[in-house]
Specification:
Strand content: under 5%
Structural class: mainly alpha
Largest sheet: none
Radius of gyration: 12 Å
Helix content: over 70%
Number of helices: 3
Order of helices and strands: HHH
Number of strands: 0
Length: 83
């Protein structure tokens, strides 16, 4: 997560991953939620930059980007697994 410290990235990533897993109906644990949120923010920031959008490095903006990215990762994982 750009612009956030390690602790903030873990907190924001955990919240984003948890909300994303609830939206997508995934049954994930704490560490998977944190990973989904942080990795999701990295993926979503990359995709947004491709279309010319740069998210602010604030907690709320990166949380929203992490949420979007977590949903993308869950959907992608489901497509790969075939569920």
């Amino acid at each position: 997560m750009q612009g956030l410290g390690l602790l903030a990235a873990i907190i924001v990533g955990g919240l984003a991953g948890w909300i994303g897993s609830r939206i997508m109906g995934a049954n994930t644990g704490l560490f998977v939620n944190i990973g989904l949120g942080i990795l999701g923010a990295v993926v979503a920031n990359f995709l947004l930059r491709l279309i010319g959008i740069s998210a602010s490095p604030t907690w709320i903006a990166q949380g929203a980007v992490g949420l979007l990215g977590a949903c993308i990762l869950i959907a992608g994982w489901r497509m790969i697994r075939g569920k």
